[in-house]
């Protein structure tokens, strides 16, 4: 007779259980015989049931551990991404808007916009950083707009453009700087002529002083160039040009000087301007 895996015969009783599979392990329950060993069979069944239950519990724990590990890994990636998105802009407290965006003041509008978009993308998760970037961008755009409406004259740039002009370079090439001793000598000579012209004006005007200035110009030019013809041509040309320019300045540009009074005040002032131009010609003309 068989009942629940038990079989009996005239010689005894035995227990037969089907094979139980759990994972890769195979559990087989041995058979016991004898009517006197039923208590041992019962205890053996309880032990095997406990082993099967423990195996299932361990399997469930392993599955829970794997699921938890997967969840932790996913949460870690999300945390890293969140930390990256919430990174703080390192130049958030820099006051100069150009330095805050990391661009130069000569940057074009396209470069400004590109710098703004790049930084916004990098620090999009941190609102104060985004506000600082937007504020710097707005300040630069407003400054550019104001400069277009109110252009500022760059004196250094204008001077550089003037110096690079071919006509200005041609004029500058006609002059050279002599020794300091020569500059002092010519300066003293024309300074004495100016003082004599102001202190001793005549009714006919400073004719004598003007004639001396012409001779002094020719002499100083010859002293530098060592050529009589060039000295005479340069001296006479500089004298005529200086008188014409001095007269034009006195008539059209320079107002009357209160310190110089008298009937010949106009001629005296014109002579002083001429002395200055003759000094430049005799000292620096190449």
Explain this structure.
With 286 residues, the protein is mainly alpha-helical. The protein has three domains: 2-80, no CATH class; 97-149, no CATH class; 172-284, no CATH class. It has ten helices and five strands; from the N terminus they run E-E-E-E-E-H-H-H-H-H-H-H-H-H-H. The chain has helices spanning 38-85, 97-101, 109-122, 127-149, 155-163, 166-172, 180-199, 207-225, 228-253, 265-284; strands at 2-3, 6-8, 13-15, 20-22, 25-27. It is rod-shaped and about 160 Å long. The chain starts with a strand and ends with a helix.
For this entry, what is the oligomeric state of its chains? single chain
Please report the total strand number as a whole number: 5
* Percent of sequence in beta strands: under 5%
Biggest sheet details:
3 strands, antiparallel
Mass-distribution shape = rod-shaped
Give a quick precis of the structure:
The chain has 286 residues and is mostly helical.
Topology:
Layout: E1 2-3, E2 6-8, E3 13-15, E4 20-22, E5 25-27, H1 38-85, H2 97-101, H3 109-122, H4 127-149, H5 155-163, H6 166-172, H7 180-199, H8 207-225, H9 228-253, H10 265-284
Antiparallel strand pairs: 1-2, 2-3, 4-5
Helix pairs in contact: 3-4, 7-8, 7-10, 8-9, 8-10, 9-10
């Amino acid at each position: 007779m068989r009942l629940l895996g038990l079989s009996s015969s005239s010689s005894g009783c035995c227990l037969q259980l089907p094979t139980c599979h759990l994972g890769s392990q195979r559990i087989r329950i041995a058979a016991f015989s004898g009517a006197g060993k039923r208590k041992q069979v019962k205890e053996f069944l309880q032990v095997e049931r406990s082993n099967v239950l423990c195996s299932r519990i361990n399997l469930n724990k392993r599955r829970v551990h794997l699921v938890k590990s997967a969840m932790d890994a996913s949460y870690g990636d999300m945390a890293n991404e969140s930390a990256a998105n919430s990174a703080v802009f390192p130049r958030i407290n820099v006051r100069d808007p150009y330095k805050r965006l990391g661009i130069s003041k000569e940057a074009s509008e396209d470069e400004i916009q590109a710098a703004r978009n790049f930084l916004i993308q990098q620090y999009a998760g941190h609102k104060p950083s985004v506000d600082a970037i937007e504020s710097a961008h707005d300040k630069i755009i407003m400054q550019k707009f104001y400069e277009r409406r109110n252009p500022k004259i760059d004196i250094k740039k204008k001077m550089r453009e003037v110096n690079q002009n071919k006509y200005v370079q041609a004029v500058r090439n006609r002059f050279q700087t002599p020794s300091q001793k020569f500059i002092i000598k010519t300066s003293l000579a024309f300074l004495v002529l100016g003082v004599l012209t102001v202190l001793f004006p005549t009714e006919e005007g400073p004719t004598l002083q003007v004639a001396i200035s012409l001779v002094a110009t020719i002499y100083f030019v010859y002293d530098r160039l060592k050529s009589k013809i060039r000295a005479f041509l340069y001296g006479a040309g500089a004298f005529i040009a200086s008188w014409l320019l001095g007269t034009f300045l006195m008539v059209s540009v320079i107002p009357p000087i209160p310190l110089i009074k008298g009937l010949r005040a106009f001629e005296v002032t014109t002579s002083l301007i001429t002395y200055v131009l003759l000094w430049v010609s005799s000292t620096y003309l190449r």
